[in-house]
UniProtKB/TrEMBL annotation:
Residues 36-118 form the Carboxymuconolactone decarboxylase-like domain. SUPFAM superfamilies: AhpD-like. Signal peptide: none annotated. It comes from Prauserella endophytica. It comes from the Bacteria. This is Carboxymuconolactone decarboxylase.
Amino acid sequence: MDENGQLEAARALRREMLGDAYVDRATADPDPVSAQFQDYITSMAWGVWARGGALSPRDRSLLVLAMTAALGRMEEFRLHASSTARTGVTDAEIDELLFQVAAYCGAPAGISARRVVKALRAERGSGA
């Protein structure tokens, strides 16, 4: 697949996993540098998802959740945690993932991510 085909595949997967509303907001800025930046992020981050390989979208989602939680990137963690209905990750898997994060990356990372998860679940009405 050529570079344009790879970018298009990455864009499509980003929309599939995060939803049209999020991607439309992220790409709405008419500034040419912002558009270039969005293409770069899409090709780098979502290009990894679109390349195929041995990991399923669910597995990739779990990895992204773990890495963003471990790094304390709660805005990105929230984005991906709110997209699990599209990626196939269950609430029980996120709960277990947060135990792993807390054990291997520290309690502050686990606690912060747990707060995000609790807030997201409260917003959708499914409790803690």
